[in-house]
Write a sequence for this structure.
């Protein structure tokens, strides 16, 4: 038995999507379709036959129109194409990650994609600064530091009354940063609103969450910041919270508490 595209509804929907799209607006006779499609009559006949064989359209009362299955299938494919568009837009950023650094689809769908200017890649961190300034409860996980923004980040967080900052960095980064931000250390020693933890990072990107209402991912490369993804959908926030909880479970704050009490506490981002 020979194979045709009509044997596979997915193939029919993919190949004949434009024809179904036209019929979604209103039922049309064949002559009306011939006026609006730029294909031969034989191609139109095959398209309608394929759609009818898959029960996506039906001919009734002199016109072709979508069936309930056709309408649902059309909307499903529209949603799929929208999701695919989100992935393609984020592609240049997420392709910088290793195969083990997976940013799951729930965060990518509908995310705003912000690429860094190669001539000044770190300037894009302004998005992070603006984001934390609007919130009260800030969570930041980062495997690397951007030394030029540490002081300003802290000041932005402090601009909101009753703020809370939870920061997680790798132990080796913490040790290196202790000698760099000595002035900032003094400010943070008495700040009960700041919690610093160390943990081994399971991914190479940075992550922040603001008030459980907005989250961002920072893509780092050897050349600096490649870009930032931001999202505020419930699914994206759930994914971000899961990453935070995964890292927080392995975090160590015991020795940091000792450092704080002895005057050696340190903040880094």
């Amino acid at each position: 038995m020979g194979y045709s595209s009509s044997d596979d509804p997915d193939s029919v929907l993919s190949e004949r999507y434009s024809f179904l799209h036209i019929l979604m607006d209103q039922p049309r006779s064949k002559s009306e379709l011939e006026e609006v499609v730029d294909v031969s009559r034989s191609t139109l006949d095959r398209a309608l036959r394929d759609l009818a064989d898959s029960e996506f359209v039906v001919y009734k009362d002199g016109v072709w129109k979508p069936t309930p299955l056709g309408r649902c299938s059309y909307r499903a494919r529209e949603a799929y194409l929208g999701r695919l568009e989100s992935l393609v837009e984020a592609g240049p950023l997420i392709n910088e990650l290793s195969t083990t650094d997976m940013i799951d689809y729930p965060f990518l769908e509908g995310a705003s994609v912000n690429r860094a200017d190669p001539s000044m890649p770190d300037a894009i961190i302004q998005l992070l600064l603006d984001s934390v300034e609007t919130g009260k409860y800030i969570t930041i996980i980062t495997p690397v530091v951007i030394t030029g923004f540490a002081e300003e980040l802290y000041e932005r967080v402090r601009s909101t009354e009753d703020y809370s900052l939870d920061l997680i960095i790798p132990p080796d980064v913490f040790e290196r940063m202790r000698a760099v931000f000595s002035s900032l250390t003094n400010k943070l020693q008495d700040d009960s609103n700041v919690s610093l933890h160390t943990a081994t990072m399971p991914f190479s990107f940075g992550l922040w969450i603001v008030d459980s209402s907005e989250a961002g991912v920072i893509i780092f490369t050897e050349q600096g910041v490649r870009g930032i993804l931001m999202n505020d959908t419930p699914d994206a926030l759930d994914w971000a919270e899961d990453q935070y909880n995964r890292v927080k479970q392995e975090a160590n704050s015991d020795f940091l508490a000792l450092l704080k009490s002895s005057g050696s506490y340190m903040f880094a981002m």
About this structure: The CA atoms of residues 9 and 205 lie 40 Å apart.
